[in-house]
Write a structure and sequence with these properties.
Mean pLDDT of chain A: 80
Low-confidence stretches of chain A: none
Number of domains of chain A: 1
Strand order of the largest sheet of chain A: 1-4
Helix content of chain A: 40-55%
Oligomer: heterotrimer
Number of strands of chain A: 4
Chains: A mainly alpha (162), B alpha/beta (113), C alpha+beta (362)
Distance between the termini of chain A: 128 Å
Number of helices of chain A: 4
CATH architecture of chain A: 2-Layer Sandwich
Number of domains of chain B: 1
Strand content of chain B: 25-35%
Number of strands of chain B: 6
Strand order of the largest sheet of chain B: 1-4-3-2
Strand content of chain A: 5-15%
Radius of gyration of chain A: 31 Å
Shape of chain B: globular
Structural class of chain A: mainly alpha
Order of helices and strands of chain A: HEHEEHEH
Structural class of chain B: alpha/beta
Chain lengths: 162, 113, 362
Amino acid sequence: MKTFFNTIGNLFRKPVTTKYPFEPTFKPDDYRGLIGFEESLCIWCRRCEAVCPPGAIVFSQDMEGKQTYHFNRAVCIYCGECVRACPREGALFQTAEPAPCALKAENINNGWNKLFDEAIESRERYAAEKKKKAAEKAAADKAAAEAKKTMEGDEGMNPGNN
Amino acid sequence: MKKIETNLADLKKDIGAFYKPELHHFIVMNAVQTGEKMELQWFFSDYAFPCETTCFYALISPGEEVPSIKDIVASAWVAEAELVDLMNIKVESTAKGFVLEPDFESGPLLKKK
Amino acid sequence: MGRQYEIPVGAQHISLLEPLHFKFTTENERIVRTDANVYYVHRGIEQACCSKFKFRQVSFVVGRVCGLCSISHTTAYSQVAEKLLKIEIPKRAKYLRMLVIELDRIHSHLLCLSHVAENSGFEALFMKTMQYREFSMELLEAVCGNRIQYDFSIVGGVARDLKPETGQLILQRLKNFMPQLEELVGIYQHNWTLSLKNKGTGVLTREDAMRLNVVGPFARAAGLAVDVRNETEDLLPWKEVGFEMITDTAGDVHARNMIRLREIGVSIRLIRNIIDGLPESALLTETKAFPDGEATVRLEAPRGELFYYAKGNKTQVLERLKIKAPTFSNVAGMVHAFTGNEYGSAAAIIASYDPCLSCTAR
């Protein structure tokens, strides 16, 4: 009998489900959403890239040494490990904004893999260039020093020729 | 964790003397690669408080056949079948193909050289 | 003797949630023999944890072993890594870990109960249980910031603090849930339709549970008092927050349902005690050390004992990580408990095991 009245009562009860896209659902204020980046505060230590478990952050570098931050919201797992690792307060922060869907046009998987490899390569190229320059500079310094030395030596060797 | 060394010849005797179904339960078998040899481990745990984990271990060479403890611990066949497929170890009366398909690359958890 | 038929169930089957394959040999509708194949989703997570990821990142990787007991895996890994690093975590972090594990247990047990109802042919109860389960998902979202992958435990402590207002929200929601839980207990206990499929089916005796080393609610329903929360005290202080062992004697599907419902009651009490007695301390223990030596950890996940073995070699990458999921221990018992039951009850029995195959295969 109780079941019968329950059934009748259920006909007039409000549904439990919500009309989601039109009505908001439960969302806490500190929801783990998109990772934000403040370029002016970044000290370019690349610690976030090193700790990121899925590899959703990568820094590329151009030949002048300027670094650019890349973030992939589809690879990110929103764990906040980068924010905890960041030594500069406010450079990286987690917002409560859920990530938008990835679109086909963005080519978010293959495009990202390519970008990731290119970014690593660009850093290696810069490092190699820097090393080469440093080596050239060192060689030039050494040559200059040697030249100076020989000159001095020459001077020392033949003092009376002038 | 209490570690007890044993070898393949004495394994059944040692575990048979230790294992009492009402006092301990068998957890799992594990294999760790240590250089050329492989360290096989059998984990047991007490039911009581405070509980201690006991580990029997034996070093085996590649290709050596390991005796099965199925007649002492009835549920050990699952762990043995898993090691046969994932770590490419030979276990007495255990066929390949429980964990992975028979044509799968054998020993996927082994360290790549 | 009648003719024997072999009936395959799975790997794709309407009553199975996970890729699990059973081959039943039946005789006059009775199951006389069962073969199981539980590995369809081997993902090589252990290999990835020992080669690709650094040890601090592994706690996020192992969270992906299982969607339902994500927090148990991350916590067990964090504990084993802390043992390798030889650090002690702050007390508040321990309490927060216990809080999330218990919230997770509520949602996992309710999910299992709803599937038992569904596989027993009681769709309305399935919907009702899922409706009541929603509060636990929202609480987990409020505590961890995400509904499913919590990423809450990290090596050295926990990632987020519990705000006082979130604590109040949890207590409030639990208060609202109490009458709903009583309603569910009433239905699962006394409903006649459900009892036809649940009482006396899938019986596992205490001797068999002991012989086959069964763990979790499956073993406790058979009268085997095995619960890691009762056996360890060093890593998480379960007894301090009032843990109580729950066992039953019948060992059938109905007993498993009742064990799960009563454990939800215990979890609610634990959560209340944790929030009331939450100690004030830091959340993280920082260290610059590298993992060295070997260690094991056992933890009670919703489905039973979870076991982690790790070996470090003083580098960023672990030498070996072994994960033993609860369902892995139960495979032998699962196969055994079908014998003698009608084939028609098999779906309900499978659901009552609460199998988690992606944990088992990793």
